[in-house]
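Example record

One chain of 230 residues, shown exactly as stored in the release files.
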Amino acid sequence: LKKVCYYYDGDIGNYYYGQGHPMKPHRICMTHNLLLNYGLYRKMEIYRPHKATAEEMTKYHNSLSGDRLGCFNLTVKGHAKCVEVVKTFNLPLLMLGGGGYTICNVARCWTYETAVALDCEIPNELPYNDYFEYFGPDFKLHISPSNMTNQNTPEYMEKIKQHLFENLRMLPHATGIQIQAIPEDAVHEDSGDEDGEDPDKRISIRASDKWIANDMTVSVEIEYTRGGRY
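Predicted structure tokens for this chain:
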């Protein structure tokens, strides 16, 4: 299982086999979608067959705008874009939710991405429920991005993209290995009680081999008998 992560410090990360992308703060949806569409398709060419979660490019919800600990500026729709892209690969998909420190926005994101996964249209107006007051003051499904400045310039984005492709170029393309049935062992365990076998039928060679005695054992027993030990 390969997981792609974003981190701020460019000196941290396991390159090549563990891809990491040094992103500056205040990432917006346009920046996110650029890396998503350029990077993920290329990864699928390298890692195929690729087994990963639907949250391939944004695993955790603390990248959403307004998160208490996150410094990115993604909307719910921008975060769910990764689900739409991964679905286009027509591969078995497993969606896992996790992370995020603003509970109401995490619930919004889970709801919308579940709808995207199921190809369902849901309204922006939230229905009344026991936790309705948590989603005020607008009581909407989608959130608006803040007015923070995007520090990821086009030149910096192009540098990341080229660095990403260069890392992937270092890896050989994964070959598909067909799953084959494991052959049975040559020696089988006893399938039944030999005492219950039909005495009128010839026993198998494997069963008859069990009756062969060691010559040394037989000679020792004979000597014991002659010596009056029995």
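Notes: The beta strands are 5-7, 20-22.
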